[in-house]
Amino acid sequence: MQEIHQPGSYHYAFSRYVEPIARVKPGEVVAIYTQDAFESQLTRESDRPSAILGPYLNPQTGPIYVEGAEPGDTLVVHILDIEPTRDWAVSAFIPFFGGLTSTRFTRTLQDSLPERVWIYKLKDGMLTHSDRLSFPWRPFLGTMATAPDLEAISALTPYDQGGNMDVPDTKPGNILYLPVRVPGAYFFTGDCHAGQGDGELCGVALEITAKATLKFDLIKHQRLDWPRIESQDAYMAVGSARPMEDAARIAYGELITWMMEMGWDRWEAYQALTQIGGLYVGNMVDTTYSLVARIAKQYV
Amino acid sequence: MQEIHQPGSYHYAFSRYVEPIARVKPGEVVAIYTQDAFESQLTRESDRPSAILGPYLNPQTGPIYVEGAEPGDTLVVHILDIEPTRDWAVSAFIPFFGGLTSTRFTRTLQDSLPERVWIYKLKDGMLTHSDRLSFPWRPFLGTMATAPDLEAISALTPYDQGGNMDVPDTKPGNILYLPVRVPGAYFFTGDCHAGQGDGELCGVALEITAKATLKFDLIKHQRLDWPRIESQDAYMAVGSARPMEDAARIAYGELITWMMEMGWDRWEAYQALTQIGGLYVGNMVDTTYSLVARIAKQYV
Amino acid sequence: MQEIHQPGSYHYAFSRYVEPIARVKPGEVVAIYTQDAFESQLTRESDRPSAILGPYLNPQTGPIYVEGAEPGDTLVVHILDIEPTRDWAVSAFIPFFGGLTSTRFTRTLQDSLPERVWIYKLKDGMLTHSDRLSFPWRPFLGTMATAPDLEAISALTPYDQGGNMDVPDTKPGNILYLPVRVPGAYFFTGDCHAGQGDGELCGVALEITAKATLKFDLIKHQRLDWPRIESQDAYMAVGSARPMEDAARIAYGELITWMMEMGWDRWEAYQALTQIGGLYVGNMVDTTYSLVARIAKQYV
Amino acid sequence: MQEIHQPGSYHYAFSRYVEPIARVKPGEVVAIYTQDAFESQLTRESDRPSAILGPYLNPQTGPIYVEGAEPGDTLVVHILDIEPTRDWAVSAFIPFFGGLTSTRFTRTLQDSLPERVWIYKLKDGMLTHSDRLSFPWRPFLGTMATAPDLEAISALTPYDQGGNMDVPDTKPGNILYLPVRVPGAYFFTGDCHAGQGDGELCGVALEITAKATLKFDLIKHQRLDWPRIESQDAYMAVGSARPMEDAARIAYGELITWMMEMGWDRWEAYQALTQIGGLYVGNMVDTTYSLVARIAKQYV
Description:
The structure is a homotetramer of 300-residue chains. Chain A is 11% helix and 37% strand. Chain A has helices at residues 49-52, 244-261, 266-276, and strands at 2-4, 13-14, 22-24, 29-34, 61-66, 74-84, 88-93, 116-123, 126-128, 134-136, 140-145, 153-154, 158-159, 162-163, 175-179, 187-193, 210-219, 228-230, 234-241, 278-283, 289-296. In chain A, a hairpin with a 3-residue loop joins strand 18 (228-230) and strand 19. In chain A, helix 2 packs across helix 3 (266-276). Chains in contact: A-B, A-C, A-D, B-C, B-D, C-D. At the C-D interface, helix 2, helix 3, strand 20 and strand 21 of C face helix 2, helix 3, strand 20 and strand 21 of D.
């Protein structure tokens, strides 16, 4: 099995303007090693993020060239397994970043919240900071993307080709579908979360380095507008936008499109999702918000 | 057991300016009969909502005077049971109303979506329109509110005293906590949904008339800023606002307040919800959007 | 000329549930005396708003019954003159209220901005706090509304019948058009601003008590969806909603409707406003935001 | 005077990943030739935009390397003159693009508005389509940007380094200040508008090819967070974000920062802008919205 490490420095943008670090074939299973969102610079609770972190966050492993991928295809990413490559995770309060603080965009004249680093030990399937703060190992890849044809997009951003979605359903056992917009797809991943609540409230989940085992496939000549996820029992679509209602509109709109591709009438799909759809918040902290719309397969 | 029917015409606003229709005592179990959101005016699939419906929608049973309730108290509503009082439910596409259409507020120059009425038969625990559109009976009360001290608020509106929240967790087995702002609380309920997906996408769930069995209690001298819900295994808070991110901020902010009342440190609560909180969309169609933040009791 | 003072206590909601304090005839010129937004409770720079102000703000003079007004009519309010009734104005920073702070809705965990009261002397047509803070007398009525048919709406709220719009164009020389939804219209006004910048940034303009000279007229059988303003050289429409883009959509959408009533083709109006329309922010601080769309009469 | 034409194909992103087409010195006056937003592909009213336009819009002339510019400097762009290079302008209704239609992000199930191309003749200082649609020549550059350090950003996007702001104050006589984030600044411009209303309502102003005469300067070692504009009588800041209230917060927040750099106390600046600030909408149609906050120099 091919093992993919980032050779030298990491990338902080989804971009076609950099050389691929590896090439994979459709059907091939690969192991990808990922850094944590801070490139492992936060290691102790006494660390002050604002003094340590540089301007670039969320380092990505990639781009990975998928052979045969062409613009207009769909890249299929089977998330087979995620293993931790260290025995601790880190969360942090970073000034003017998070869901319950003013930010660079939702700008106010108020002082920032206090900085703070939280270290969790991983043991026996639990991430434990203290008696009160102890949560199960529920890993997923916060960031997976293909490269845009024209832009280079900061690795902090969720967008229509995936990116920093931070939705807990990009987890082992599930399949992520992404649009291909450049030859080779240029796949990136990183930002493994050992666990995360809906919304990623303070902006930083249980960040950990990891080894992700993925299998890539292609659906030739199938254009996709937004990321889709398939689990054993549900179909999902991810919308990323601001304000949050636009992310919701996109997610449900895209799920209707998927249902129509599966033979549904548009109005029946609209009606079905009204009565049985699911809609949760993946992130409410990134440069755009990500929402996941879902329908159980038993209703499709 | 006291049975409460609306005597004569229904109310379409949460208001202290109308006479109570019944009085209940703390600890008393009552049965409340509710109309559907259209006052049962849509009965056939050939009906055209725009020709039939008047300006007032979502009729409420109430106000119900809770003895001993004073401003500054919390009203506790135990939702014991919901039974249908007819064997069918109705959904509808209404012009310029819903989650995937322009509206009176998100105003565009586009034509409306087609009108349409959907009738579902209730039988053997399933609501069935057709082979494809058949969903289980999962009833909840879409609307529950206490009256504002000053305002009279349209029964279509979710707000900080409950209202038309359309969150599926106001269901049998759960407890709703609402602020009391006028003597007697002036409780209203209605809008029973035989089932609903997250977001209530087209704007109209499986609307049905119902008999709701509720028990009221009071927590004296406990001020509440926003509605809270308790289930057997979770604590929840409901935020209602636009844009949707404000509803999310309110919901999580209020849940942190609740956790602090239970002895948590503010920053620990912020951290815990980041890693284990839940956040789903109740409605994305009403005059404000309602989101539910939750934490499982095992982590509190 | 009839002089209208509020007899006894002021009203803090736009509501049909209170008795009119005066009756006026179409064509009649009246003088209305208005309180400031704090009912003149803030008088010194050493005052602390949070210690002094109660839950009700923005007292209104009204309701005023306009004879002959029926639902479906348009109320025409000619703003003839505004005179100050004291020689000072007040502004204030109030905790969690304003455009550059988190609020009750845009909720964060941050501390509030510092409280502060600013007193301005009115002399020689200038409002002067200090050398730096000295601004011309540019008075307008921050709040004007008719009563809803069903609701009672807090006097802090801008909505589709006017309300607390805080748009500087409701000033002497201009005409405000409001929908009538109850017999007699039930007109309210208050919240005179001695001057205000676009957005009313800190949430409190140059608040002053005043005598407003208004003339009322009716346009029978002309329904209106949102407030309109006419100046000597422009037509304007006011949209109030959240998020702010919805207020913008409403304002421009309503202005297109107005142009169509004046004989324009819908698409020509859309095109004309693209090239020559104006769009400014009245308030970015109230419970909904108010934007004003305008077109100069020379282009209509 | 150096004349700068785009050699060969245009650029559709603000990016450091392309070679500069010209080099300028601080203090140098240059003439830059710009394409229209459609690369002059729409020429007749019978044209159908959806059939003619490719995926890339808003071609830019650049990057232009400014000698001596280093990250952390401010680029000063004196807009000296704009001359048309043809005698007609074009506007258009493009499906799912504009301020009064659903879009790719504010996604609905509705049909698009009708497509339409509008050609205006430029003569005697007027742009004239018909008797009704005739507007004065009020040219400005819709798009001006420096390149991000990491990203390549679609030329349709306004952001913190300028971009497709579409604010009418980037016009002759005014000065635009932009942050420098890469050596040489990498300046881009294009999208000349022969005139535009606030908001650019249908999404397409009076698009024209032009010769812009600019003079570049540098302020060394002065970091800037967002674009600023100086006219003869006002200071302005431009915020670009969604939802629109975030753009407003940024614009006013940045203007306060500027006033503080000029010696103001933060709270006095907040107070002054409340009473005398201006706030208008530049665009309500692009990928983010742009608002302009201003204060007249006489109050600073």
